[in-house]
Amino acid sequence: MLRSSLRPGFLHAGPVHAGFVHAGALLALASAATAQVVPLPSPEDDGTKRLHHLEEDGALWVRGDSYKAAAAPEGFTFVPFLGSDAERNWPLELRLRSATVGGEPLPLNGRAEVARRGERVTLDRGPVDVHYDLAPDAVEQLFTFDAAGLRGAIVLELDVETDLEPRPLAGGAFAFDGPEGGARYGAAVAFDEAGRAVDVASDLKDGRIVLRVPAAFVRAAVGRITVDPLLNTSVTDSRPASLFRPDVAYDSTTDWFLVVYEEFFSATDTDVFARAIDTDGNVLDSFYASMTMLEATRPSVATNGASGRALIAFLRENPTDPHAAIAGRVYAFGSQTLLPLAEYADGLRENGPPDVGGNGSTNPVPWFLVVWNRDDVGSPAIVGLSQTVSTAGGPVGPTFLTTLSSNEDIDEIVVSKSVGDTAVANFWTVAMKAVDRTTGDMAIRVREYPPSGGPGTPDTVLKAFAPGATIDDIDVSDAIAAQDGAGNPLPATCLVSYERLGPGSEDTMLVVSREGAEIVTVPLQTIEHADVAADQRHARLATTRDRFVVSYLEETGVGAQYRVVVSTLDLIEGALLAVAERRVQLGDTGVLFSGGAAMASRASGGLLGSTWLMASWSRFETAAGSSSWNVRSALYAASSQSAVAPQYCYGTPNSTGERAFLTMRATNDTTTVKQLLASGVPPLQFSLLGIGRLPTQVFPVTNSSGTLCLGGAVGRFNGSITQASADGVVSILVDPTSMPTPTGFESATPGMGRVFQLWFRDVDGSGTPTSNFTNAVAVVFR
After folding, report:
1. How far apart (Å, rounded) are the C-alpha atoms in residues 273 and 588?
2. How deeply is 730 buried, as exposed, middle or buried, from its count of CB atoms within 10 A (0-12, 13-18, 19+)?
3. How far apart are the C-alpha atoms of 471 and 454, rounded to whole Å?
4. What span, in angstroms and rounded, lies between the C-alpha atoms of 628 and 630?
5. How far is CA 337 from CA 229, 316, 381, in A?
6. pLDDT, tens only, 263-288
7. What tens digit of pLDDT does each residue of 439-489 get?
8. How many CB atoms lie within 10 A of CB 769?
9. How far is CA 46 from CA 279, 281, 313, 575, in A?
């Protein structure tokens, strides 16, 4: 009765005999190992109030929760944070213009000496010290004098420059108002070292604040006199800062990941922020790599394991140049220090966003590689450039052109996260999207750079596209070891991804590349049995020691929300890609999407035996009536058993809405038991495994809704009739020494090729019984 119910629609390709797998020992039903995904807290989750300091452009900058400020020899600038969508910054610049005692002026220094001690910044003006005590939500301004010998009233005049509208408040305080809020300058109090205090009269007129300390208080004062107003932010709507475009790197000396991203202070002011996170998700350090009132955008990061340092490179606006420069800072993990800013390309020409390659701990060369494209003003060319950078942050040697093509523009350029396992690769791969200036035809070019420096190998065309074809958003992985079918080593192999643009959808394409040559190009969504009608975009690549990991965004069909998914792929026969674990969801993008999920593996930082990676992406979030971009991260272990057979044959959805997916795991030898693992099968439905000699694709199939992918002499594993688990998983163990054929059983021999597919019961949309199939896998035994 059971066998009869399984017959309709299954393998009408010739006579089928009832072979079986050894009962018990070789037949198993099990759920797929739960994908190891660990969500990490976002920067906005813990609510901790912090202060961050940075020296930049000759000023001491501080970032609190509700403001940023700069102390410079010219004075103090307070910038209230009024929301990332504020049209611009509304700074309040304060400078002590004069100080008099009894009408006599004190000889103030024209330029202050600036120093910071803890959370106090001091501008030394000679007889008057101007202190700023910093707290996360406010700044306390203090003027201090030596009271000895002072007899008359003290009058302080401060120049105030701002586009905010001044307004007096009760009690001697002042408001400075703008469209989204502004700043408050509190009423001042004077006190001496004996603890005596007096209110200070204040006035705001003609762009100046005037503070008056009564003469009677001055005459009786003991020790130093301090005048103390408070400066803080007032907002009409409290909103978190928008965090955007993350990148990730890993340091093996501390076992920390470093996540860098943009933080929008306003619509015209973007900073670069970083967080060091351990593998338990704890934030060990956080800092700004750039924090002025100029724009710093598109950060990229990589690590150098020999030195325990990271390079963060970014576009940085320069007010004296017409375009953004390429700048960067090196961060030392062990001492948690940030080295001075360095510049790699000036802003006299239009620079594209930088990308950074690092070195794992197995490579002693203390260098990074930075690549970017540049529009050479005055010439028709957009060129790709590379610069080697030391672990102190400075450029090493000349800047090299990455391509010698004379008729193409370099529209995008990326570099591998590291030089890979130095025993098998030891080079950076640079990939470029090239566009013919005359025809618009596109190509992907690649070049390999040695970590010892130099211009690298000549660039080659990895893939040329037909006229009119459009691609976008390329990425490149580290190179991994490769072997041919006989087990002989091949040159190290990397993966290049791009988006194929077309009407209705965007799809992720993967190119296997070796020594700059295309080995094979496959559509990721087809081999992993996804919905190719949906948008899949912004692929990002990473590697463990011997496998590839790809993340991308996939539309959910709910507004503009995308899910963030990751798949693990193995390289077969040095040329083919097999999906070992597919479409593991790490999170989502919220109601909007932007950019991909940046990834870094521990292997890229030199911990070659690890399978863990971190992914970070932008998520649009709403809470308490406000909305902003946030950065979300997750740890993911690409630890599934290796796949040994590439997938083929794109099938049809079953009653779950999924296309059931099959993978073969273990090794491709002729004796070891193999696991055939299917997911996306209708829960609790019965299934049967088939085997054939030739791949095919037959649709429709009688009494079935699926696509038959087996051809040649087809057999079936009647002993493997299996019920899917409650989560739609079927696991079957196959003994290659006893595989069914139409005439009996056979044993695998070296060089033998076989294809496998799972059939299962199902119902159609009307509830009528039918059947369906997974995709298929093709293995060559060795």
Report:
1. 22
2. buried
3. 30
4. 6
5. 33, 21, 39
6. 999 999 999 999 999 988 889 999 99
7. 999 999 999 999 988 888 899 999 999 999 999 999 999 999 999 988 899
8. 12
9. 17, 12, 27, 46
